[in-house]
Amino acid sequence: MPLSDFAKASIPEVVEQLTTDEAILLTAGVGFWHTHAVPRLGIPAIKVTDGPNGARGNYFFMSTPAKCLPSATAMAATFDTALIETMAKDLLAQEVKLKAASILLGPTCNTARSPLGGRSFESYSEDPHLSGMVAAAYVKGLQEGGIGACIKHFVANDKENDRFAYDSVLTERALREIYLMPFMLAEKYAHPWAYMTAYNRVNGTHASENPHLLKDILRNEWGTDALIMSDWFGIYSIDHSINAGLDLEMPGTNKWRTLDLMNRSIQSRKITKRTVKERAKKVLELVQKCAKYAPEVLDGDRIEQTGDRQSGRELMAKVANQSIVLLKNEGGILPLKPKEQGLKKVAIVGGNAKATVLSGGGSAALKPSFFVTPYEGIVSALKTVEPSVEITYSEGARAYMQMPTLENELETEDGKPGWTGYFHSHENDDSMTPLEEPTVTRYIDETRIFLSDDYPKELTKRFTLRLRGFFKPREKDTEFEFGLVSAGRAKLFVDGKLLIDNWTKQTRGESFFNSGSTEEYGVFTLKAGVKHEIYVDFINVRAPADSDPVEAIMDTNGGVRLGGAEVQHPDELMATAVKLAEEADVVIAVVGLNADWETEGYDRTTLALPGRTDELVHKVAAANKRTVVVTQSGSSITMPWADEVAAVVHAWYLGNATGDAIGQVLTGEVNPSGRLSLSFPKRLEDVASHGHFHHEHGKVWYGEDLFVGYKHHHHRDIAPQWHFGHGLSYTTFEYSDLSVTEPKVEDDDVHISVSVKVTNTGKVTGTEVVQAYISHPTTSEVTHPPLALKAFGKIFDLAPGDSEIITLSLDKYAVSFWEERIARWVVEPGVYRVRVGQSSAPDALKLSGEFKITERFEWNGL
After folding, report:
1. MF terms per GO, please (predicted)?
2. What is the pTM of this model?
């Protein structure tokens, strides 16, 4: 019988037939990625996979190559919900199916309270309306494609350090208006099939066992029928989470909800059989949706696939190029037109130009099915428009935190890229001595090996992995620095000589989800024409450290990482880049962050670019006034050199088609239309949460309350480097004829239309984003942000001289606030102001109008 036949099952009848033990099993996962099957009743297991910018599949180790989409902040920067919906349906849903999964763990729509948050790149925006509308489009498209969305992390999960324990302390009004609002909008417009709870506490109680969040709000107020699951290892009790409404504990490894503990909890009356069956019923409802809307997944061979590695490239490039933000373009230096501008020599510099930077780190990371570097994309685009242009390159200043991985530098004995791994069982589970003969031998094409739970199951609990490969011969003698990180113990040997000992004693670090060591280094002279043997010995038992003497077995987060780079003196590297800048007609500096700096597991400590990157930009800009800077990051960075360069282009993390998109925008094949989904401050001190972003004895005080991002800048009259919503075009636009209709109050809602005429006053066709911000009545008895985004729209491909009228709709969400005393949304009578323009910057909101609401009303729900 096909597993998808469960789509026809009567859920009440199945629940009635469940034994208590079967119901218990359904409330927790199996392994890392599956729910529990009950073959007796025809209940299939379903598989989930990490997102949100792709579908990695089951494996961190030797994962199946996949399409990587732009980061969430980039998706939001498109201000194009229709594009995001199409992307999710036509590309992302198909990717999930290729990974034999039915549920994608995404989107992430936490509020970017601070750009220091390690996963800020993974959420959409600092603005709840933009976040919610893009999240709704993502969820809608994904589920139209037959794949369930698991929206996360519910809620107030806005930093990484101490993420399992810290307590987000905030007012109910801020919780509702800022942090819950994106989820609320996604529920209203798209109805996610599942929610994932956050690791942290919210006002004293962990989210996974918080009845106010799960019962009062999600179930009762919003009326969701979604399943609620934990984040991985994100529950801390049995009875509290069961009774609060958490349906599914994930993963099934090292779980709380075992048959023994759950039955003991029933016997002690901490939980009831009825409640357990209620939780199991939600799991069955989710399984049935998966069987109904994507039966081919359940009935398939369950083998992960990549499919056509290049398929969807055009759509991926479109999402990427539509997200790119032109921040500055002095003198019209962009787009680059070599013939028209007399550009014969172009210098490309910067640590990100040739680096593989496609996403942030952590669970969002995956192995790309293809990747185009910025350097490759820019060269291709320039050569297409002018084949004779000369292009030079220098790294200039290094941008990585950890040494770049070496899979492209190593090869096996038979010449394949990578190396060979020999897994050895030990004499027994407690032994530190590996057996002489390997238990499993595997070809491995990566030098960051995160074993998670992906190691061969036939191994003993303690095991050894020995990695052997050969460094591809160099053309000349080269001093080469290796870097070794391990979650466990590891040693690096080159030609049989011990180069790095990360085995005897370690310093704890933040790699491998805070399970790994710091990186240890060693330098070796690679001889010209010689294939040097590279050998790493690893065991999944941590070495003692000064701060932590425990020699724990790494049974879920074990890993080893080998990186390296040629030894180059930083001053010489910088001087080379400056010399090339002096000789060039134009300089393109590609700089930014990467997955080491922005990642799940820890927070950033600064908004500055890494190492000597800022110094590099200062120096090349001084050497050549025609310097274009392309920045890559998933969240805000500071740009102390912004006034010194001719142009600044922000490119986020753009996924597989990174270089394609950057090249298209720089050469004008695509006229940029992205707008900043985050404010970019001039300094860290100008961020609203500065001074109370980090926890104090486990508590994180949300002292900025409602004033997050641009709302803080307006409230305090602080000018950021770049305003939220800012972005230029290669043409110009003029706004006129603003019209605001009188509010129509009916069916417990408000309906207001805002229309404006937009005219292309430039010389090329362009696309414009129209933004509408609301200010509450000055007669209000409560404090409100000076202005808040409540509607946006996009006018596409407007030709020079043409005009188009765009109409934006406002509803009760645009004019409501949360009244804590009565626990309801309130719409106050009074005069509301609408400001319409090109960004949240005061001088960009050139048109304003008013409307008046005459009677107060209250509402709840959605």
Report:
1. beta-glucosidase activity
2. 0.97
